[in-house]
Design a protein that fits this description.
By secondary structure, this protein is of the alpha/beta class. It has 4 domains: about 1-40 and about 165-185; about 50-150, OB fold (Dihydrolipoamide Acetyltransferase, E2P) (Beta Barrel); about 260-460, Rossmann fold (3-Layer(aba) Sandwich); about 470-650, Rossmann fold. Helices cover about 40% and strands about 20% of the residues. The chain has a 7-stranded parallel beta sheet with strand order 11-12-10-13-14-9-15, sandwiched between helices.
């Protein structure tokens, strides 16, 4: 008998170099263990048929169906031998719907002999449309015969596993490869402590792997899934718990505000009272800042809930305590916007060391990559001497040249654009590790916070400040009802006539480079998939057409930083009526006089992004209006997504909808340092209970045994999830 291959055995030794190469390139599978953890997406019951009506366009699918009809057509062809070409059209059925398969040329002979009416088979191919009917062109197929010798029968019993596959490697080939490596499942070291596994009635890992790939009953599948979900949740939570534990061992300088310092003076000059939520979250932050180990806190909240104000109060508390605070923003536009709004909020308190500065003022400096040499030198000097208490900048703050006098707090805005490496590089600039506050602009459900930001304590701002106006949102179906779009431009004019301002958002810029790419497309391509609307084209058309006579300007990411800043200043000062922009305005832009936003090709944006964009209007006393323009048909998933955005202003609810519609890997983004997401079985939204319980168990185990010395199998699983460097820098999605 052949020896059972080890889990770390390369697939090329077991399956041969050709198959192993395809598995590595297309599925990211390199070892026997990787293949064992490539789980079926779903199962077909032998004797049952797939629902053909629900097939997604342009996706690679595997279906089990029966041949209803097969016809061979001969036609004139200059390319074919003897001037005659052949086309085989096979219709397959599931009893309720039909799907056409088509084979051409030399590829017709085998299917013509094998795909006879009544034959049952698995078919795999990419779904396309021809003559308004769904079809698979040249699908791969595997016959499902009843005899015991049939190869499919050897790896599929009553339930046929359908694997995530590619055009180069069909589901049944993956199934046969798994048949070869399945005995290795017995070698799998079980990462769950025995007491935890038995206490929760979970099967062993070996048993779970056997049952997920070769289930005899549906109960087998449920048992296997329950166990494998626990593995994923638990190992990830242990990684995060170890990071929390390690962070808690670090020393930090406690920072307490003075009763007569800059924070008290700032609070006195606020023209409004803080909301109860802002007060409560500030207290949580101040309590953390006063401890002798570093704060690690996630501040999340609704669009417009006042996160920047809460973060600024924390920064001023640190300045009061003799330290410096740095705010890291993902883009120059956002860094400049934060700098502008912070200096406006602080007034003379931001003019420390200057004529006219208040007695207990500090200095607020901006540091970005594109600053002039003289301004940059001055900013660096202010940071090194401690003259500047607050610095706001982009990742330019992380560079080696930047030295702080005494960095006490790092605020990271829009966390998902920063990896932990960058966070830690900035933290390394303090005499001792500084406190850390992460702000995320997109509300995220508790489960995602626990999974992606699991090393941070979470504070949530869930009420909007008084004086914020409601935002009405409507979908504008441009294709079905073009007069609705004309009415949208009328609404923009009406708002401008009242003295307000408007945003128009487009998915792309539309400079020459984009134009050149677009021109290469054939007219058929253009008709089928027109390019996204562009800022430059749209601005020109609006200024010449429906918005003629209004002051229209553009803003996009490829403009020079000084030009961007100048446009934003003019818009903020009311010198521009309509700003046509890309998503550079998505976060942090605060112009209370802007009351209407028109989002072109809104279906090309994600749910959270639309909610974020919409939050730029209704920031003053006048109500906001957001118009979502789309050419997608009423029944499409894209339109349903837009209807969801239009129907609620609850960002937490929208983020759930967003995550339910996207794949889990997208949710976690770079959750595992750029590798494929480790979550194959766990659904972050659906498995809230498992994640919460796994977090409690992980914290308990790490507190008792931080180095996992008594749990070698768990240690091994952790190393497989994250090598040493990656555990330290668990990337945040």
């Amino acid at each position: 008998m052949d020896p059972v291959p080890a889990l770390d055995e390369p697939l090329k030794k077991v399956l041969g170099p050709a198959t192993a190469k395809v598995m590595a390139e297309h599925l990211g599978l390199h070892t026997v263990g990787d293949l064992l953890h490539h789980y079926p997406r779903r199962y077909e019951e032998r004797g049952q048929l797939t629902h053909l009506a629900d097939l997604p366009m342009d996706e690679h699918v595997t279906v089990v169906a029966q041949v209803a009809d097969a016809r061979l057509h001969t036609f004139a062809s200059s390319r074919a031998p003897r001037g005659k070409g052949q086309r085989l059209e096979v219709t397959i059925t599931d009893g309720s719907g039909r799907l056409q398969l088509v084979f051409f040329g030399a590829g017709v002979h085998k299917p013509h002999k094998e795909l006879l009416p009544g034959t049952r088979a698995m078919f795999a191919g990419k779904v396309s449309v021809f003559n308004r009917r769904l079809q698979l062109a040249h699908p791969a197929y595997e016959l499902l015969r009843g005899d015991a010798e049939e190869t499919v029968e050897t790896w599929a019993g009553a339930l046929i596993p359908i694997y995530p596959a590619t055009a180069k490697l069909e589901s049944w080939k993956i199934g046969k490869a798994l048949q070869t490596v399945l005995p290795s499942a017995q070698e799998a070291a079980d990462p769950l402590p025995e007491s935890l596994r038995e206490g929760r009635g979970l099967v062993t890992l070996s048993e779970a792997l056997l049952k997920i790939h070769r289930p005899h009953t549906k109960a087998d599948i449920e048992e296997a899934r329950a166990r494998l979900k626990w593995d994923e949740a638990f190992v990830l939570q242990v990684a995060l718990a170890r990071r929390r534990h390690a962070d808690a061992q670090l020393p930090a300088v406690p920072r307490r505000p003075r009763p007569d310092g800059v924070l008290a003076a700032f609070d006195d000059r606020l023209p409004f009272t803080l909301t109860e939520g802002q007060r409560k979250v500030s207290e949580e932050i101040f309590a953390d800042l006063a401890t002798d180990h570093p704060m690690h806190r996630l501040l999340q909240g609704e669009v417009g809930s006042g996160k920047t104000l809460v973060a600024l109060r924390a920064m001023l508390a640190v300045v009061d305590a003799g330290g410096q605070a740095a705010m890291l923003a993902p883009t120059e536009v956002l860094a400049q916007q934060h700098h502008r709004s912070v200096t406006e909020m602080m007034g003379e308190l931001a003019e420390g060391g200057m004529l006219g500065g208040a007695e207990n003022a500090t200095k607020v400096v901006l540091l970005t990559g594109s600053m002039g040499a003289a301004a940059r030198r001055k900013a660096l000097l202010d940071l090194a001497t401690g003259e500047a208490g607050v610095v706001i900048g982009t990742h330019a703050l992380i560079e080696d040249k930047v030295q702080f006098h005494d960095l006490g707090l790092v605020v990271v805005d829009e966390q998902h654009r920063f990896g932990v490496e960058q966070r830690d590089a900035l933290r390394g600039k303090g005499k001792q590790p500084p406190h850390l506050l992460v702000m995320t602009a997109t509300p995220i459900p508790r489960t995602v916070a626990m999974t992606v930001f699991g090393d941070l304590e979470t504070s949530v701002l869930d009420q909007l400040p008084a004086g914020r106006s409601p935002i009405a949102s409507h979908v504008v179906p441009a294709a079905d009802k073009p007069h609705f779009l004309a009415r949208a431009w009328e609404r923009v004019r009406e708002e401008v006539d009242k003295g307000h301002q408007a945003y128009v958002v487009c998915p792309r810029i539309g400079d020459e480079e984009d134009g050149a790419k677009a021109k290469k497309k054939s007219p058929e391509d253009e008709a089928e998939k027109r390019p996204p609307l562009a800022v430059l084209d749209t601005a020109e058309q609006l200024a010449r057409g429906p918005l003629a006579g209004l002051r229209v300007e553009v803003l996009h990411g490829r403009m020079q930083p000084d030009d961007k800043d100048a446009v934003m200043r003019r818009f903020a000062a009311g010198e521009v009526d309509v700003l046509v922009a890309t998503t550079v305005i998505e976060v942090g832009v605060n112009v209370p006089n802007a009351t209407v936003m028109v989002i072109m090709d809104a279906d090309r944006f994600g749910v959270s992004q639309l909610h974020q964009l919409r939050g730029r209007v209704g920031r003053g006393s006048a109500p906001g209006l957001c118009l979502l323009v789309s050419e997608m048909p009423e029944a499409s998933a894209a339109r349903q997504r837009l209807n969801a955005v239009a129907s609620t202003l609850d960002g937490f609810e929208l983020s759930r909808i967003d995550l339910e519609q996207r794949r889990e890997g997208d949710v976690l983004g770079q959750a595992q340092s750029g590798t494929r997401s480790s979550l194959r079985m766990l659904a972050v939204i659906d498995d809230e209970e498992v994640i919460a319980e796994a977090r409690v168990e992980a914290s308990r185990i790490v507190a008792a045994d931080p180095d996992l010395e008594r749990l070698p199998a768990l240690r091994t699983a952790l190393d497989a999830l994250l090598d040493e460097e990656r555990e330290q820098y668990l990337e945040k999605g």
